[in-house]
Amino acid sequence: MFKVNGNQIEEFKLYLAKFIALKGISATREGVVASLKFLTTFIKEQLNGEVELLPTSTNPAIYTELRGKNSETVLLYGHYDVMEADDLGWQTPPFVLTEIAGRYYGRGCGDNKGQLLAQLLGIATYLREYGELPINLKILIEGQEEQGSRDLNKLVKKYQTSLLANIDYVLVIDGSKNVNGKNVIRLGNRGLLAFELGVKVATRDLHSGNFGNVSENAALKLIGYLNKCYDFRTKRVKIPEFYADIQPATTQELEWIKKLPLPQGQPGSNMAYYHKLMFEPTFNINGMQSGYTGAKLKTIIPHKAFVRCDCRLVWGQRPELIRRQLEQLYHEELARGELEIKFLAEIAPSKTDSSSPYLMELIKTIREVTGDCLIEPIMPGTVPNYVWTDTLKVPTFTVPFANFDQNNHSVNENISRQAFWNGIEIIYHFLERKKRYYGTNI
Amino acid sequence: MFKVNGNQIEEFKLYLAKFIALKGISATREGVVASLKFLTTFIKEQLNGEVELLPTSTNPAIYTELRGKNSETVLLYGHYDVMEADDLGWQTPPFVLTEIAGRYYGRGCGDNKGQLLAQLLGIATYLREYGELPINLKILIEGQEEQGSRDLNKLVKKYQTSLLANIDYVLVIDGSKNVNGKNVIRLGNRGLLAFELGVKVATRDLHSGNFGNVSENAALKLIGYLNKCYDFRTKRVKIPEFYADIQPATTQELEWIKKLPLPQGQPGSNMAYYHKLMFEPTFNINGMQSGYTGAKLKTIIPHKAFVRCDCRLVWGQRPELIRRQLEQLYHEELARGELEIKFLAEIAPSKTDSSSPYLMELIKTIREVTGDCLIEPIMPGTVPNYVWTDTLKVPTFTVPFANFDQNNHSVNENISRQAFWNGIEIIYHFLERKKRYYGTNI
């Protein structure tokens, strides 16, 4: 079994340090060109691949295709763009890779530069040993993931019969391992529909004594409208057909859930817990504001109010249908201009058939390298994997390399040295197993 | 008819300038001692009265009693404390009286130093002319009005059988005239019950994907609770007995309402408009907040949420009863610690019987000085007049001298020169009419 050795450690770390230092901030585009150049050079020199830049409305994606001996073709997906790092609380400079107590710190170490580089280094190390790949690898490295992958589905649609044709399955190396440190394979994720309801009744706040009862209150109106789409008593969403198409968990999925550890201190059964997170949609308020919110009493009638909601959607639910039905529910209010709806996110849920033959192979690979591998049939959060499962219509496995406490999108982002090495080893071993498999079968 | 004349103008203005310059900020107590000294000196030298300082938990009240020839006794109420003046947007220094285009600008010009001084100057001018008063005047000048008159009721209870005994009626010179510039007499006002509902479900916000459905959402819980005390569909308050004791408007009150001008651009009838403002309670949200309220989408589950409500209460409603019933309504949630209620204000409504014989006399006085006088049976806003009508049990007439656009509590506070003069003239004429009345009746 290949293990990262002492000589390689410093070389691998150097690549990561250089990549982290280049920034590549998604929203401001700072360091995007330098990051593209770094990856292009790496792919050319280390993987002997040609790079194609795929333009988007902002940061381009990188595409490369590495030919192997057999026709099996895997798409590896990652992203080079990172969040900003201007929050207070960083204990090391965010764009200087710093190793402390077995962890690499820096913006992007976990999300996703560290995980992306582990893939590329795994392939490079394999190529140094064997000279050629056992299967075809296509690699798509996005530059808009931290802006919600806004052009990804368009891109996939554009190239699905050319660059992205003939793919057997997709490996998404992103996210975090299980809280207890075990590696995990995810087969799907909840989708997301986020929207803001806004009410404006006047041009300024009014005195609640002088105008109370003769002027409308934006906050009261807003909550009235909110009651139309959510039943606060039964905790049920009242958007028509919201629940209609939800698909139940399969026997296999329920079995996998049974094996997942219930987080410490969580009451109830792990079955109920994970069912709620994986197979039930949510209705969530993530922010609301109206009027004066300082410390004193200020007897005003607020002239505007808003509430922002996000619904996590489960398999079977279609965000575009729910969006249309929400608009239909508020048809009259919208027509009268009394309510404004802004849609902020619309990402379909994703799911890969658990009977895919590639799954068992992946589980074995990971178990051989790290000792264990849990299956999460559905990730409770949202990633844009529907572009692979629904648009490209291929099985998709999400295999996070980063530690649970990677602090992605937060201060002191990190990847543990061990997790980084294991990532490299998993990719190397994945290719070695393919070589063995095709070697014995041909 | 007495009219402020050229010689007096500069003298009166000088007093106002000195009083404004002394500050007397309610919350910080800056200039309170100087303001007390100014008033004490004025009362001694100009009204020949002795001053008693009535201690409170913060700024003392000033009390004086001026003996007149007849036993009729009127209490004049005003306040010397002012709001802070640190908002941006003042076009003149707030504590330097500045005259521009027929208005005196400065913090307190309208609320209440200008109106208070007009009373004192009216009495002083009368005394210069006639040497003695026709009736007894008791004057109570509060120093806590801008902190919600927090000790006023206690004070009135303490002195109701001594200093504040044997009062025939109270004149409250505060507030603003009608929007069309006409003087007005107010016979009552709506009360106020203000409270905050707060929910806290965790120690920090959580990721709505990772925890959506397994962790509680503070904003959803809060709105659920809010639905228990307010029906957003029918717009009815669900606090038990909220509406039970409301007293209908009398025929006389309805007749007065009929004569009040409907504000420009206001649809509907003036009857419906003023009925809503004077004889119907409100349920108002003045502020609410939960979660992230910045510009972006942030898919969090907020761990806390609050909503602040103020109810304007009408005649018959008892704030202490409604407060207790609100607590009863949330008995279980409070016992479980799932909800917190903070009561922020509790002021009873006030009402003076419209058949009081003093009313016609006051109307005549004001009409003779200014040409017209409207009657507002109830002021929609809230002042602590219940201390006179309910605790002291005497008729109370609120007679604002200040212009409608006095900008009290705001920047560029002012009183129009004409309104200030008219105030002095009204008090002077009020005393002159008393003299004539008792002269012809004795």
UniProtKB/TrEMBL annotation, chains A, B:
Domain Peptidase M20 dimerisation: 188-336
Alphabetical list of SUPFAM superfamilies matching this protein: Zn-dependent exopeptidases
GO biological process, alphabetically ordered: proteolysis
Keywords: Hydrolase, Metal-binding, Protease
Pfam families xrefs: M20_dimer, Peptidase_M20
Gene3D superfamilies: 3.30.70.360, Zn peptidases (3.40.630.10)
Example GO molecular function: peptidase activity
Regions annotated as coiled coil: none
Statement: the UniProt record of this protein carries the keyword Zinc: no
Protein name stated in the entry: Peptidase M20
